[in-house]
């Protein structure tokens, strides 16, 4: 659905509020079809982002796992390798 929304659970250090907000923003953009809402929809758009961020934070705080936390740099490198394999070298 939203390719820009990244997995946020089980990382060291834990997910930051700014990362949750960005994922919430991407989610609302995808659902609404707006990158930037009109003035008429601006309040509802931003309220949805804030509401989803609160729920996402609650989710992140309540999830448990016995798996070792993932390393952000390692995961970013894996994503780069997948992209290189999928799309080839970027010019």
List keywords for this structure.
91 residues, two-stranded parallel ribbon
User: Looking across the biggest beta sheet, what order are the strands in?
Assistant: 1-2
The helix content is: 55-70%
State the end-to-end CA separation.
27 Å
Number of helical segments?
A: 3
List the uncertain runs.
none
SS-based structural class?
mainly alpha
Order of helices and strands: EHHEH
Rounded Rg: 16 Å
How many domains make up the 3D coordinates? 1
Oligomer kind: single chain
Please tally the β strands and state the result: 2
Summed up:
It contains 3 helices and 2 strands. By secondary structure, the protein is mainly alpha-helical.
Task: Please provide a written account of the structure.
With 91 residues, the chain is mostly helical. The chain has one domain. The chain is 62% helix and 4% strand. It has three helices and two strands. It has a two-stranded parallel ribbon.
Topology:
Elements: E1 11-12, H1 17-32, H2 39-62, E2 70-71, H3 72-87
Parallel strand pairs: 1-2
């Amino acid at each position: 659905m939203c390719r820009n929304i990244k997995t946020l659970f089980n990382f060291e250090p834990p997910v930051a509020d700014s990362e949750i907000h960005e994922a919430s923003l991407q989610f609302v953009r995808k659902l609404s079809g707006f990158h930037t809402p009109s003035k008429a929809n601006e309040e509802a758009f931003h309220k949805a982002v804030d509401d989803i961020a609160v729920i996402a934070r609650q989710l992140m705080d309540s999830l448990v796992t016995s798996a070792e936390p993932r390393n952000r740099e390692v995961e970013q490198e894996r994503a780069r390798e997948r992209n290189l394999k999928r799309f080839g070298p970027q010019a």
